[in-house]
Specification:
About 25% of the residues lie in helices and about 20% in strands. It has about 725 residues and is of the alpha/beta class. Helix 4 crosses helix 5 (about 345-355), helix 8 (about 415-425) packs parallel to helix 12 (about 515-545) and helix 14 packs parallel to helix 15 (about 680-695). About 50% of the residues are buried.
Length: about 725
């Protein structure tokens, strides 16, 4: 196995520094004899925790506070035999509150009993909204799958990474807090408990969100001071004439007129001997500068927190378009739970333009994209806007084929007829688009969940499954061809099987038995991954031979082993989402193992200057700094010979209190009041207008980021 070592990787060391300290304590928690609240199924409380990296200040019974400093984790650890006796239906919960105006991380850490190392097996990462007392909760049923914690009122997004943990064999629980920027903060915690049922979620009667959807407690340069100011601003914009793209410099699609290839009538790729290019339908060299989720807003999850808003529109009548229903899926609702989400962005457009709000928003947005020198509409964007804009675009295909029996998380039984049939149905959605010349290409999936486990061995997971799997049959045949008889396999694997078909019965941790077993299973994992990509690619190309298949939008942090690139030979473009400050090293890795043109489907920097408590996966201090960070990222991407484009995530900010899943990043170009972040946008537009100079090799990329400019989150998104 070839391990890829990447100097830019940020491991979760800030969460895990605590481990060496913890082990020295011995973790001898004392069981309390007092019962807690009704329905509590354990006597464990905050009195049973010890602290690493900070000091616990006891405020009362089952109530404490801790001080957290920038860049230093404070972790509370609970180790107790009673943990193993808890049923998987139990819930962990506690009430938290943090001061200040920034969201610190609040992560749950889980260790299995056979893990005596520094790193937990599973991390459920979340954050605290400042000034809001809320109950954090976690169902222990998530441990078996390793993901799927539900969004609850008053909390932010929970994102799990790592492997599953056996509910009967977990030994330690950690609650880790850390600030990534700004001043130290005080976190108050109380009412820790394990309950038989999901707890309640009391929300205080305070107002956090104003009538326009802005955070009341924070000011920033481009904040709308009143709804009247916002309405006047938007109406004035709508009356302006649409700017034209520079036709002497750019083609009608946004390609550069400095370089031309043969025209095919559709977007395609070509290597000119020095680098990869996209080629637009008229033949001009094209580098894709795009923005994701270009739409009239991002709806927010207001379930259980309506009292935190100064105003919310009625669900019927004038503001009906500001509400939308969306299904969310989690461990409690595997078939989906329908939520009513509120889009303050749309409510503000309705307030400004009435029933004609979408047309006016489209006009304003088209003006902005031309002025900002954006030549591509990125993933998940408004379909009506796409159809009228005459701007090149990409799309995500919906409902990637996943079989009823899965091998691990969302990885399907790839050799089954069911997978082939689902792939054929999946491809049919391309039929109405196959002749659209503005469509650059399509993505088949986005950040597959199974790939978030860096050490996953798919074939080993396959062997653990009960029942019939077509992929397991193929694995057995693979081994029969490799080994002349079962004795040869037993010798190599250090096993004692009576026959090859015994492998069709559940087998656990086989790859640990010998180096040869590990190598065989990793090789078959590679074969399965190739099939995973090959089947839907061929189905899609049968329906639509004209457009580029741009792959799976891998989370680049998951691409740590060479076998993860299997199957890319079937793709036209390799795509990945890459949240780093400089994409060069990740592009180098992807180029080495794919030799494909590469599109970065997501990246961003937010800033601490805007009206959010969380600033994005990467951020800067000011909006002007944010423009410098964009230049550094964009030019270093553009200089790479395999890079054909970068798509910024995303056009709008998340709602202040969170979208459907609780994510509440400042990552956008425009606020909820539809006003651009002026210092950022000014720099962003200039970088785009000059970027072809770097792509063409006419000047070098910015080679150094100013000292201390960017503050980073040391974990993967």
């Amino acid at each position: 196995m070839k391990i890829i070592l990447n100097k830019s990787e940020r491991i979760t060391s800030m969460l895990l520094v605590l481990s060496a300290v913890l082990l020295s304590f011995g973790l001898q928690a004392q069981k309390q004899g007092e019962s807690m609240a009704q329905k509590t199924i354990s006597t464990l409380s905050f009195e049973n925790f010890i602290a690493a990296g900070c000091q616990i200040n006891t405020l009362g019974k089952n109530e404490i506070s801790i001080e957290i400093s920038t860049g230093l984790p404070c972790t509370l650890i609970l180790q107790h035999p009673e943990l193993k006796t808890l049923p998987e239906t139990a819930w962990i919960s506690f009430i938290s509150e943090v001061d200040g105006l920034e969201s610190p991380s609040a992560n749950l850490l889980f260790w299995s009993e056979d893990n005596q190392g520094q790193s937990p097996d599973l991390i459920s990462a979340s954050g605290l909204f400042p000034g809001l007392r809320a109950r954090n909760s976690f169902p222990l049923s998530v441990l078996a799958e390793g993901r799927g914690a539900p969004k609850t009122p008053g909390t932010l997004i929970q994102f799990s990474f790592g492997k599953s943990v056996d509910i009967n064999k977990w030994s330690r629980l950690g609650i880790s807090f850390m600030k990534f920027s700004g001043e130290p903060a005080t976190v108050t915690l109380k009412d820790f408990k394990f309950t038989a049922e999901q707890p309640d979620y009391p929300v205080p009667a305070i107002k956090i969100i104003d009538e326009m959807g802005q955070w009341i407690q924070k000011d920033w340069n481009d904040k709308m001071k009143s709804s009247d100011e916002m309405v006047s601003y938007l109406r004035e914009l709508a009356n302006q004439s649409e700017p034209k793209r520079n036709s002497e410099k750019y083609s009608e699609y946004g390609g550069t007129k400095l370089k031309r290839f043969d025209a095919s009538g559709f977007f395609r790729t070509e290597h000119d001997g020095k680098r990869w290019w996209l080629v637009d339908p008229s033949g001009y060299a094209f580098y894709s500068m795009g923005i994701d989720i270009i739409g009239p807003g991002i709806p927010g999850n207001v379930e259980g927190i309506s009292d935190l808003h100064e105003w919310m529109p009625e669900k019927e009548g004038e503001y009906v378009d500001a509400w939308e229903k969306q299904k969310v899926f989690d461990i409690q609702n595997p078939t989906g739970k329908e939520l009513d989400l509120l889009n303050f962005h749309i409510a503000n457009l309705i307030r400004s333009f009435g029933n004609n709000w979408h047309d006016e928003w489209s006009k304003i947005t088209k003006q902005r994209l031309v002025e900002w020198n954006v030549n591509s509409i990125g993933n998940w964007s408004d379909s009506t806007f796409i159809s009228k804009s005459k701007i090149p675009y990409v799309i995500p295909l919906q409902n990637f084929p996943i079989t009823k029996k899965r091998i691990f998380r969302d990885f399907p039984d790839v050799f089954s007829q069911e997978y082939a049939d689902l792939s054929n149905d999946f491809a049919k959605q391309l039929e109405p688009l196959k002749n659209d010349k503005y469509l650059i290409g399509y993505f088949m999936n986005n950040e597959p969940g199974w790939a978030y486990v860096p050490t996953i061995n798919l074939a080993e997971e396959l062997l653990t499954k009960e029942g019939d799997y077509a992929s397991k049959d193929v694995l057995v045949e693979f081994l029969k061809k490799r080994y002349a008889n079962i004795n040869d396999l037993n010798k190599a694997w250090k096993t004692s099987f009576d026959a090859f078909d015994q492998l069709k019965q559940p087998q656990n941790k086989v790859s640990n038995l010998s180096e040869i077993a590990f190598a065989d299973l990793e090789e078959f994992s590679t074969i399965m991954l190739e099939k995973y990509i090959e089947v839907p690619v061929k189905a899609a190309k049968t329906v639509d031979p004209n457009h580029l298949n741009m792959g799976m939008r891998w989370a680049s942090g998951a691409l740590k082993e060479s076998w993860r690139f299997a199957g890319t030979q079937y793709l036209d473009v390799f795509s990945m989402n890459n949240y780093t400050d400089n994409p060069s090293s990740r592009l180098d890795i992807a180029a080495e193992f794919t030799n494909k043109p590469i599109l970065i489907g997501e990246f961003h920097h937010g800033s601490m200057e805007a009206g959010h408590s969380a600033f994005g996966a990467r951020w800067t201090r000011t909006e002007a700094d944010r423009a410098v960070a964009y230049r550094y990222y964009a030019e270093n991407a553009a200089a790479h010979p395999n890079s054909i484009g970068i798509h910024y995530f995303s056009f709008n900010d998340d709602p202040v209190l969170g979208r459907f899943d609780g994510q509440n990043f400042h990552q956008g170009f425009v606020s909820v009041g539809h006003k651009p972040y002026s210092d950022f946008v000014k720099g962003y537009s200039k970088v785009n207008d000059e970027l072809y100079e770097v792509v063409m090799g006419l000047r070098a990329a910015m080679n150094e980021l100013p000292e201390g400019l960017v503050t980073e989150i040391p974990m993967k998104f």
